[in-house]
Write a structure and sequence with these properties.
The chain is an alpha+beta fold and about 220 residues long. It folds into two domains: about 90 residues, Protein of unknown function (DUF541), domain 1 (Translation Initiation Factor IF3), CATH 3.30.110; about 100 residues, Protein of unknown function (DUF541), domain 2 (Alpha-Beta Plaits), CATH 3.30.70. The chain is built from three helices and eight strands.
Length: about 220
């Protein structure tokens, strides 16, 4: 009866990883406008929310432009209020409108023209184009760093070089847009005023990890 061949574990295999980091200006603004209504009748509260949201949508769509100012609705909720005895004594609802894009002045000015909602939060991030471009730059840095580290370690261990066994590449741009709560109303963003918002920078990190065969 034939016995299974014993496979010897690989020898002189080195595990390593390297990062490439590129700091870049955030070029995507996301502004959430919100309103709340309350009353004793659920239908009335819902109708008020819908009217406020419809008016805001009508105004926002006038300046909408793909990639520069995209308009979408956010959360729309209606929930009961209870007395201490557990009985419903009213209703409260919330409606949101999200303005998002790369044209910061256009977004701020549009928010200033909307009178039925107020600014709930403002967040910044990277557009798809900026993220792809920056990831490519960070990836190049990470691969170069990986190769340099593999070469140096090979020599330090007394080997002439190495061959690549396996590798994985992972990117991290710091996550999605991180909103900041705003106390200002949408009216404070007047069309003629200087834009009271400024994006910061974020780091895009690409990690290259894997194993090499020393030789």
């Amino acid at each position: 009866m034939a016995q299974n061949a014993v496979v010897a574990p690989p020898q002189n295999v080195l595990q390593l990883s390297a990062n490439g980091t590129v700091e870049v200006q955030q070029d995507l603004l996301s502004m959430t406008l919100v309103t709340t209504r309350d009353g004793t009748d659920a239908g009335s509260v819902q109708a008020q929310l819908k009217a406020a949201l419809d008016a805001a949508l009508t105004e926002a769509r006038k300046n909408a432009q793909a990639g520069q100012l995209d308009v979408r609705t956010g959360n729309f909720s209606l929930s009961p209020r209870y007395t201490r005895e557990g009985k419903i004594n009213g209703w409260q609802g919330t409606a949101e409108l999200v303005l998002e894009g790369r044209d910061f002045p256009r977004i701020a000015q549009t928010a200033g023209r909307i009178t039925t909602l107020t600014v709930g939060n403002v967040g910044f991030g990277l557009s798809r184009e900026q993220r792809a471009k920056t990831e490519t730059e960070a990836q190049t840095l990470a691969i170069d760093a990986f190769k340099q580290k593999a070469t140096e370690l090979s020599k330090n261990f007394g080997f002439a070089g190495y061959t690549l066994r396996e590798v994985s590449v992972n990117a991290n741009d710091g996550g999605p847009i991180r909103p900041r709560m705003m106390a200002a109303s949408a009216k404070s963003f007047s069309a003629d005023a200087q834009v009271p918002i400024e994006a910061g920078k974020t780091s895009v990190v690409v990690n290259v990890s894997g194993s090499v065969q020393l030789k």
